[in-house]
Amino acid sequence: MIPARVQDAALRLPSAPAYLYDLPGLDEHAASVRRALGAVELYYAVKANPDAELLRVLAGHVDGFEVSSRGEHAHVTALFPDKPVALGGPGKTDAELRLPHHRIHVESLNELRRLRATGLEADVLLRLNPDLPVAGAALTMSGPFGMDEAGAAECLPLFDERVRLRGLHTHLASGLDAGQLLGLARTLLDNGHEEVNLGGGMAVSYADPQARFDWTIYGSGLEALRRGRTLRIEPGRALTVYCGYYVTTVVDVKRVRGEAYAILLGGTHHLRTPATKGHDQPCVVLPTGGGQGVEDEPITLVGQLCTPKDVFSRKIVTSAHIGDTVVFEMAGAYAWNISHHDFLMHPNPAFHYLRS
């Protein structure tokens, strides 16, 4: 259910398409996550959405930020020079290995050797990619990410007082519920390390936006497993997805072989998530038009791109008329920042922030 304050703000936007971020909603959600985690450290995975206004809200609730490139590092450290930063991601360049950080997540033996060759001090977490079951995951982080147990063992002789091993980093899968993540955590914490970063992967349902990850169960479960160790998690999507909305306008309604289509300004070059994940983006159609349209029947919502893959939602039952306003929810993560903005060179969306 899209809050009334968001719908009201969407109707007041000067133009469409546009992104609308609900900052009070984000603040409330992040605060509730922070409370649930207790002594477990909370980092935000900036890759999910690096919008500066969102980061400013999150900074009041997180212990640090996880970045995966030189650009993300520069962006975050310019905004928050005193906030701890963890540097992750495969294929780090020599320049990235020299960046200042609180922790660096090393992905391979060769990367560790190159890190040592910089001559700089470093506090390292080895990214482990163990062979553990992750049934039901939306995405598994296998293949090139991290090391298996043999690869991690090869790294151990290279640590000393300058390049220090602090523990392990893991991120095995995305789309898991609290019980599944706790099951993985129990296995991963049987390793004797005093510091473990368990990554993110908290389930987010685009089919049922009201079905939220149970942070209370997860936080209490991690606290029981912590036993004096430093535990850290680094969610991205699960922190910011609910605060973002993509607002656009119906520009045409038509039928092709009996099937109804609403053509919207913008497209998946602005909001790539439904095309990437193959889901229907949840939305509400607000009756601001009154032109040609359909009443309470299945209709497919598409954008302006010259490709049949430019689909937001397929055959949703609703009313839609030319001039109506469409508000897509769950657009606060992996949306604008992963989209192919320049395809067809349509104008970029505007960005607006609901602050109260």
Could you please describe the fold and organization of this structure?
The protein is of the alpha/beta class and 356 residues long. The protein contains 11 helices and 18 strands. The chain has helices at residues 4-11, 23-37, 52-59, 70-79, 94-97, 109-117, 149-155, 178-188, 215-226, 237-240, 273-277; strands at 18-22, 41-45, 64-67, 85-87, 103-106, 122-127, 139-140, 163-169, 173-174, 195-197, 230-233, 244-256, 259-264, 283-286, 293-302, 311-321, 325-328, 350-354. The strands form 3 sheets. Strands 1, 12, 13, 14, 15, 16, 17 and 18 form an 8-stranded mixed beta sheet that branches. Strands 2-3-4-5-6-8-10-11 form an 8-stranded parallel barrel. A two-stranded antiparallel sheet has the order 7-9. α3 links the parallel β2 (41-45) and β3. α2 (23-37) runs parallel beside α3, α2 (23-37) runs parallel beside α9 and α8 packs parallel to α9 (215-226). The relative contact order is 0.17. Residues 137-141 have low confidence and may be disordered.
What is the strand and helix layout of this fold?
Blueprint: H1 4-11, E1 18-22, H2 23-37, E2 41-45, H3 52-59, E3 64-67, H4 70-79, E4 85-87, H5 94-97, E5 103-106, H6 109-117, E6 122-127, E7 139-140, H7 149-155, E8 163-169, E9 173-174, H8 178-188, E10 195-197, H9 215-226, E11 230-233, H10 237-240, E12 244-256, E13 259-264, H11 273-277, E14 283-286, E15 293-302, E16 311-321, E17 325-328, E18 350-354
Parallel strand pairs: 1-18, 2-3, 2-11, 3-4, 4-5, 5-6, 6-8, 8-10, 10-11, 13-15
Antiparallel strand pairs: 1-12, 7-9, 12-13, 12-17, 14-17, 15-16
